[in-house]
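Worked example 2:
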Amino acid sequence: MNILIVGLGLIGGSLCKSLKKYTKHMVIGLDKNKSIENLAFLDNSIDEIFDGNYDKIDLIIICLYPDAAEKYFQSIAKMLKKDTVITDVCGIKGSFAQKMNEIATDNSLSYVGIHPMAGREFGGYANSVTDLFKNSNFIITPFENSKTETVEMLKELALKIGAKKLVITSPDEHDSIIAYTSQLAHIVSSAYVKSPIINKECGFSGGSFQDMTRIATMNEEMWSTLFLQNKENLLNELNILINNLTEYSKALADENKEKLSSLIKDGREIKEENLKNRLGQPN
């Protein structure tokens, strides 16, 4: 296939590099920053820079923020040949994916969203790597009217670039679960680093500190957009967390060791059950 990657940041750049290394597809790059396009070409991360000819494109992977992705797709939809496949890597789906699917359907195109669960502390093409998706979870979010062959093609690509576990789910369920597994974790990390003690942590911190703070370096423009577009799901998870933290705070203030021990025990047992379930699931 001729695959067009739109947006050569961390995810887009890494997709280019992975597809180039692990598949025989033609990888074509497009970015608003022409110096990034040139760098990707010189790096041999892409086979060519996009020349504006959509007739030759079989698959478009849009690696932009949701609003920009929708706007871009709307602007090119009528230029694409029938049955061209379009996907995006946005961290939210829901109503955004519904709009993308409507554009595709209106123009006899095939749209299915994807969400590779992979990233690094810092974004941008300079931080993109070939094996970013190795052993990652990879989510595919078809609609009821999505073509089976499109889903199968995306599954095959995901496995070729190193994905370990493929998850097929609806756009709405994706957003509900991602609010807990990803977005809430980013908010917690961002809030956690705001203690003044962070200026004294050097020499006092270990793995737990690194785990809690790693994603606080997130891109504020992208993540604030994702948070707002998944507002209801994220608020629900945030309120559950606040209520849980309040229980710990009250038990501590009351010097209630029995309550603290019970809260910790509950958390341990929930996580142990979670680990047991994960071990019992196929890759």
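The chain has a mean pLDDT of 95. The first helix runs from residue 10 to 22.
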